[in-house]
Design brief:
Fumarate Reductase Iron-sulfur Protein, Chain B, domain 2; binds iron/sulfur cluster; mainly alpha
Length: 381
């Protein structure tokens, strides 16, 4: 099959954050120091080469960018300043745009103004919707109980509807990822049992990012773990215990206690990320794409407004608490609706999927080798 070359691919990747890729002269230092590379998934030198050659389809079908955790060791060792770590990061952004069938991810990564505008519009619609609903059926001076401005039962229905839409969008993109990287590859025949055997890797890597721990410095992995666990805790509380979370003003410790822990976790990680990106002392935070800033700022706003709303309600200030609740939702809704399927947060699905498909690919290669050996051992008739 003919290989299609896209000469402008490097220029396109610049929009996704790639820098100085042309400086690479393929010494291989980066791949030698990377703790995640091996004979089957060889990076970052190989993707650098494919990028220089404009091999768009090869890159689109590759899992390697997702196997990189951006520890930055390769960038530190590169004698040419070709920034392989940042190139892998930019490839993840580019792949996110490729998997997204709507084209929205591509638009957001290429234009931060479009993303900010979309966030503004969704925030405004959220405010209009919540205030209208609140004034039509409740009392803005009441936070909880029969006359509540935003009753937890109604917000609960809204949350679940949003969750299902997001899940459906993300699943469509995950299916496209599987198609590009696995199903459409003619030279890769995956035994069905292999898909079942490795299913456990999806939750394992989602919750632990286990392979991140292979990097030389464990700090970023631990912080990432805190971020994911805090986020998942908050998600479980909101999806299954919203009534207890919104009740009060007395504190319901079994629910709110976990909420406090998750809020502290989110605050710590967000402050660490902001400080790191401003100071640029760590190699993986030296380069910040606009989407990185948008993500951190949104996460900070969601966390801070959530805390403010909670404190106001606990102190009996129901009217300001209701206003703060709407302000909180003005950040939560765009954060979820735009960031999860179309931007940085989609990584939470793609990375575990890549770990899973990586093992599936290894099985396929082993299977192909066994079949080929058996064929050569058959007597010639
Ligand atoms: S990115 Fe740097 S270290 Fe890696 S192969 Fe190219 S020149 Fe060598
Ligand atoms: S940033 Fe770290 S994990 Fe990623 S390719 Fe470089 S050395 Fe490997």
């Amino acid at each position: 099959m003919a290989i299609r070359v896209q000469p402008k691919l490097i220029d396109e990747l610049v929009l996704y954050g790639a820098e100085d890729v042309q400086n690479c002269y393929h010494c291989g230092n980066c791949s030698a120091v990377c703790p995640h590379t091996d004979a089957v998934f060889n990076f970052p030198r190989k993707p650098m080469r494919h990028l220089q050659m404009g091999l768009e389809e090869r890159l689109q079908s590759s899992l390697e960018p997702w196997l990189c955790y951006y520890c930055g060791q390769c960038s530190t060792q590169c004698p040419r300043g070709a920034e392989p770590g940042e190139t892998m990061m930019s490839l993840r952004r580019w792949l996110t745009a490729r998997y997204d069938f709507t084209g929205i991810a591509s638009l957001f990564y290429r234009s931060w103004k479009a993303e900010v505008l979309a966030i503004g519009i969704v925030a405004l619609l959220t405010a209009i919707g919540f205030f209208t609903f609140g004034f039509l059926q409740g009392d803005i001076h009441t936070y909880d109980g029969p006359d509540a401005f935003l009753p937890s039962s109604s917000v609960h229905i809204f949350d679940w509807a949003m969750a299902w839409v997001l899940f459906a969008l993300l699943m469509m993109n995950v299916i496209r990822m599987w198609w590009f990287t696995t199903a459409s590859r003619e030279n890769l025949r995956v035994p069905v049992w292999s898909y079942l055997k490795h299913l456990y890797l999806l939750p394992l890597h989602f919750f632990t990012q286990k392979r991140y721990g292979l990097c030389e410095h464990k700090g970023p992995w631990r912080l990432h773990l805190v971020l994911v666990l805090s986020y998942v805790t908050m998600l479980v509380l909101i999806m299954f215990f919203l009534h207890q979370m919104q009740s009060g003003p007395s504190i319901v410790w079994p629910a709110h206690g976990f909420g406090y822990l998750a809020s502290i976790g989110l605050l710590i990680t967000v402050i660490y990320a902001l400080r790191g990106r401003f100071k640029k002392t760590q190699v993986h935070m030296k380069h910040s794409h606009e989407s990185d800033w948008i993500f951190i700022v949104m996460l900070l706003l969601v966390t801070v407004t959530g805390i403010v709303q909670h404190v106001l309600h606990r102190t009996g200030a129901d009217l300001p608490a209701n206003v703060a609740y709407v302000a909180h939702m003005m950040f939560v809704v765009p954060m979820l609706v735009l960031e999860v399927p179309f931007s940085k947060w989609s990584h939470l699905a793609y990375r575990p999927m890549a770990m899973y498909l990586g093992e599936v690919h290894r099985d396929a290669l082993r299977h192909a080798e066994t079949v080929s050996k058996e064929k050569t051992m058959q007597p010639v008739s």
